[in-house]
Design a protein that fits this description.
By secondary structure, the protein is an alpha+beta fold. It has one domain: Translation Initiation Factor IF3 (2-Layer Sandwich). The protein has 3 helices and 6 strands. A 4-stranded mixed beta sheet has the order 1-5-6-2, covered by helices on one side.
């Protein structure tokens, strides 16, 4: 019985630690893409949009909103650099339901 409690504690602790992690690093190419505001990109070329989907839960553990936002931004920056050869992104709206849309620009 004691071993089962220890195992369950280890699983819960592991899930909580993983839930706090950001799994998507910004790549070297993504580092060249900045997160801008709509005003900052008024004179830039609008290339399109990228849609980012992020897992809100790992198992039964809900991930912290700030980590989700970091991961969505990193994914969008990486995508904008590789897929669009862009150097700026602008979020259209906040992350909702694990999904966020970013407009992609070349300035």
């Amino acid at each position: 019985m004691k071993s089962m409690h220890l195992r369950l504690s280890a699983i819960i602790t592991g899930a909580l630690v993983l839930g706090a992690c950001t799994f998507v690093p910004v790549t070297g190419e993504g580092e060249q893409v900045r997160v801008a505001t709509a005003v900052e990109v008024q004179r830039c070329e609008h290339l399109g949009a990228t849609i980012v989907t992020i897992r809100e839960r790992i198992g039964f553990v809900r991930r912290p909103p700030e980590k989700l936002a970091e991961e969505a931004e990193a994914t969008a920056r990486n995508s904008a650099a590789v897929d669009w050869n862009a150097n700026a992104i602008v979020p259209r709206a906040p992350l909702e339901g694990g999904r966020q849309v970013f407009d992609v620009y070349r300035c």
